[in-house]
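[agent] plan:
  1. take the single chain provided in the ticket
  2. run structure prediction with default settings
  3. attach structure tokens to the ticket
  4. add a short note for the reviewer (M.T.)
[agent] executing step 1
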Amino acid sequence: MVTISGEGLSIDDIAAVARGAKVEITKDRAVLDRVERSRQKMADAIAAGQQVYGVTTLYGAMADRRVPPERMRELQRIALWHHKAATGPRLTEEEVRAAMLLRANTLLKGASSVRVELIERLATFLNQGASPHVYQRGSIGASGDLGQLSYIGASIVGLDPAFLVDYKGETLDCVSALKKLGLKPLELEPKEGLALNNGTAASTAVAANAMARAYDVFALGLALHALFAQTLLATSQSFDEIIHRWKPHPGQIWIAAQMRGLIAGSKLIRSEAAGDRGHRAGALVQDRYALRCLPQYMGPIIDGIAMSARQVEVEANSANDNPLNDPDTGEVYHTGNFLAQYTAVAMDQLRYHLGMLVKHLDVQIAMLVSPEFNHGLPPSLVGNPDHGLNIGLKSLQVGCNALAPLVGFYGGSMADRYPTHAEQYNQNINSQAMNSANIARDSVEACEHFMANALLFAIQGAELRAKAVADTHDPSPLLSAQTRGLYQATRTAAVGPRAGDRPVIWDDTDGFIQPKVEGILSDIRSRGAILTSIEPLRGAVRAFAAEGR
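[agent] step 2 finished; step 3 output follows
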């Protein structure tokens, strides 16, 4: 159960509700009284003849046109009706749930001049599993996510049967859905239609869900680095604490510390400590950059992810519609809080950093499959070199080489690509946050696919290294305690528990690679045994991201 009060929602809270957790509205009288006072102050302003945007006027560049009192409720209906213009792919149920949560949280700030009943309806939809049909495209993240939030707002008040809701396996018109929920259509009061659709909840919801998955992608990427380092017989010296105290970026120090823990106790990692030199005869005296510079490279990535997370959480706990009303003074503020620029920039940066993460892992894979760099492993990690025709994981590496540039491409900026002429030049600055967040979802999904490929390389490489070092294809006794579980969970997801002494891929024609990757990917996306095996690292990523908030 997640309690909403207008503040304090974390990315993990949002993800939990998105995945099905129930919510409760705070019972704090001060919060609820604030909501009611804001509604009453708006009524007082209207009665006094004050001009209020979107309440006594039309919208946007037509805000110079006045609305008579007898048509103000009709105007709020039009605020939602007007935006039923979307087509194309829909948001996922998880994203719609997150958007409903964030809208309820925003309205509980007590500056939006709505009845508590509207907030309660959002909670009812969440707790009963009713999910409005909402579309991905159509928001420019200025005046908020008008299209997406209108579909939600219209559904919870039963504006028109054309708005659809998924409920208990059925697709219903919103009026029928309300009836099943024990609710009736609700007439909107002045300001309420605008309060429902004029805000950043939809793009920020998509962003928060992408952020939650990105935490796990990053944790998985770091654990993969630890597996690759062991298979490539790396030295532990690169992660020595004193090196990183001399260059004290928070992320770099944190990455080095995590890597020291991840490889601790490994029988494959070389020590460079005095009196315990582990140099490879005839080899480089130091590791190549992809291993030696890992903390310096990965540090900015975790620092950047933490910054993006902080921006998304602040946005999720903000009052972000227009106008806003101070319930203490009655002052009506015409604002730009609906501009989702922080969400857009956060997602631009997240996608950029995910591209850097995948690029680095792709380099490790390239070393792993190349005899020039992999210290005695077969080319392309061929399982049975005596076969004569085996070519190993060549096709899988090609797949990685397709995914890595795609994630890099997704890392391009969106927030600076706004058109300046939107809505009669009124929305001439806009964030493009929804587009940025949608691409972030796509980027995370491509990263998860890449991670599934990379994990197959990791377990095949570890098994071949174990054969070279200990004459067995089971690397478990050689791996560090913190990566052993990841190896075993990945192997099980790919082909099932170990049976006999062969690597996961022996002869190429024994079976297709595809189902092995699909098994790993399915386990990742269902948050199964693979992610469970690195739970301490997942927690550490979230803790680091939270430190600055």
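[agent] step 4 note for reviewer: The chain has two domains: 2-199, 208-319+329-547.
[agent] ticket updated
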